[in-house]
Amino acid sequence: MSDSAETILDVRDLHTHFFLRRGVVKAVDGVSFTLRKGEVLGLVGESGCGKSLTALSVMRLLPKGAARTVQGEIVLDGENILKRTPSQMREIRGRKISMVLQDPQTSLNPVFTIGDQLREALVRRAPAKLKEIIKQAVAALRRVDIAAPEQRIGQYPHQMSGGMKQRVVGAIAISGEPEVLIADEPTTALDVTIQLQYLKLLKRLQRENGMAILFITHDFGVVARMCDRVAVMYAGRIVECGPVKQIFEAPSHPYTRALIASVPKMTGTRGRLTAIDGQPPSLMNLPAGCRFASRCAHVEPRCLEAYPGTTQIGADHTADCWKIGSI
Amino acid sequence: MAVAEQHPPAAPEIPEPHQSFWRSLLNVRSSAGVRRTARVPWIPIVIISVIVIMAVFAPLLAPYSPIDQTLRDKLLPPAWMEGGKDRYLLGTDQFGRDILSRLIYGARVSLLVALLALTAGGGVGLVIGVVSGYVGGKVDAVLMRLVDAAFTFPAILFALLLAVTMGQGIGTLVIAISLLLWAGFARVIRGEVLALRQRDFVQLARVRGCSSLRIMATHIVPNVLNTFMVLVTLNIGVVIIAEASLSFLGAGIPPPTPTWGLMISEGRGRIAEAWWVALIPGIAITLLVLSVNLFGDWLRDRLDPRLRQL
């Protein structure tokens, strides 16, 4: 990795497992990535590959009792936050690191006005007089392009559209001016025109605040629009990571290639969409070798024997595959 | 679109004015939305109101003292019957006390006990349900086993024991009935909280760095208040019957304070010759409990989460 910019979040060899009666589900199994100040890193992969669990591990908000981070380091601003106690963790949540979730319909408390909910976040950041806080809340709503924020502040979530709610959720998330924002598929539940609007907003806020965003999605279109770099995840590991342009133009890992090939194209002949045959391996019973081997077109014996190490391809581009350069 | 399917034009999204708890109770609906509207149970509401007014203004409404005995007027039938006197509308009991006055004062005890027991029992149930559902794990297991234990407990027997050890009185009665109530509240509320806990706004509150205590108090409790209100109304009947049963058994309020249960108890020996002594408070209990249950049913339909717009 080049050190062209300062690293704000460095996740090293993260292992988060579910401990079930039936066995151990290795949902996140050796994830490493770095997030630099002010950049947007996309985390893509299919459902169940461990994207969201990676995010929850970083927030240290894993489902209690079921999942546990068993190994690795999460270094936020030079400090391994896995060493923090729960109450020390609370201090940095919302202020240093924050998060928006997928579904705006359930992201707001239905029984409170959005003003009340913004206030809760604002008071936590810096206690002030009610009048002052309300002024701040109006400003926060204006920042996320909510029209007539003075009126909106007294309204309940059910009186707003999905896109508007998601913007309010965004306003709450960044009210503590976090340095890192994790966005877990924030546009999946929005329709396409609203999606675009929301992404533009997020990009603008990111530039204004200079915060870094870990953007989780399964939509390559969104990645192309939003991200500076992208990490591709498969079966609990990051298989390829690099600048968006390089990943799109010259994907190195067979899985990344297959993923990009399966994105529907606007041009060319119409026909069946390209799909990747087979299923990802069971996370309870992972193969010894490359996890993509069973679905890979270029598989050879060594792929089944051992997991390939990380190969440096470009200055800022890595992939986990035995056959880099030969395929 | 190739398929020749006609979609009705999508209804324009009208921002709906917020329906407050009380407004939604009154069935006022300001937009054109369709909602299954159960009829407002006016008769139960009137009956409940009359009984509440009776209880509150008992000293003004009751024609006589509920305790003073007039032995020469004992066991007079209601006024409309042969031998009844106009002075005693609902007749008198074996000590010549006016049954109407006792009924009016008795409503006080019944409602006071209901209020206190529901506050205590319901409150404890609410707290335990919320903590159990939100914290989960071992805490949940222990609390829910306690609830199971409470369900198997013979409440009446326990109340008798309390009456013997602590003495009769409103305090004993309220404690006994609260012990009967809390487990049901806790179990229902816990179920609700388990569902709420999964909702994203709870997760996001944690992301913002809210403490568990704060999340429970400001995010969970307000969301289970509807359920809590319904539970309260549906349990009023249970409390009134429990109070009456315990007073009937002698574990409740000591005589001569009038309570409905006690009145039935005193009248049961003479049910053959003076049926009104026991029957009239019996009718009062039946009417109140029935009304409260009908009202509670309606309230539950009214606040049904599936019909509620979030």
Quick recap:
The complex is a heterodimer of chains A (327) and B (310). Chain A contains 12 helices and 12 strands. Chain A has helices at residues 51-59, 86-92, 104-107, 114-125, 130-143, 149-152, 162-174, 192-209, 220-226, 244-249, 254-261, 301-305, and strands at residues 7-20, 23-36, 40-44, 67-76, 79-80, 97-100, 180-184, 212-217, 229-234, 237-243, 310-314, 317-320.
Give your account of this protein's structure:
The complex is a heterodimer of chains A (327) and B (310). With 327 residues, chain A is α/β, with parallel strands linked by helices. Chain A has a domain at 7-96 and 227-320: P-loop containing nucleotide triphosphate hydrolases (Rossmann fold), CATH 3.40.50. Helices cover 33% and strands 25% of the residues of chain A. Chain A has twelve helices and twelve strands. Chain A has helices spanning 51-59, 86-92, 104-107, 114-125, 130-143, 149-152, 162-174, 192-209, 220-226, 244-249, 254-261, 301-305, and strands spanning 7-20, 23-36, 40-44, 67-76, 79-80, 97-100, 180-184, 212-217, 229-234, 237-243, 310-314, 317-320. Chain A has an eight-stranded mixed β-sheet, with helices on both faces. Chain A has a four-stranded antiparallel β-sheet with strand order 2-1-4-5. Chain B has 310 residues and is mainly alpha-helical. Chain B has one domain (39-63, 71-302): MetI-like fold, CATH 1.10.3720.10. Chain B is built from eleven helices and no strands. Chain B has helices spanning 21-25, 42-56, 58-61, 99-135, 137-152, 155-166, 170-197, 200-207, 212-249, 260-267, 276-302. The two termini of chain B are 33 Å apart. Chains A and B meet through helix 2, strand 6, helix 3, helix 4 and helix 7 of A and helix 8 and helix 9 of B.
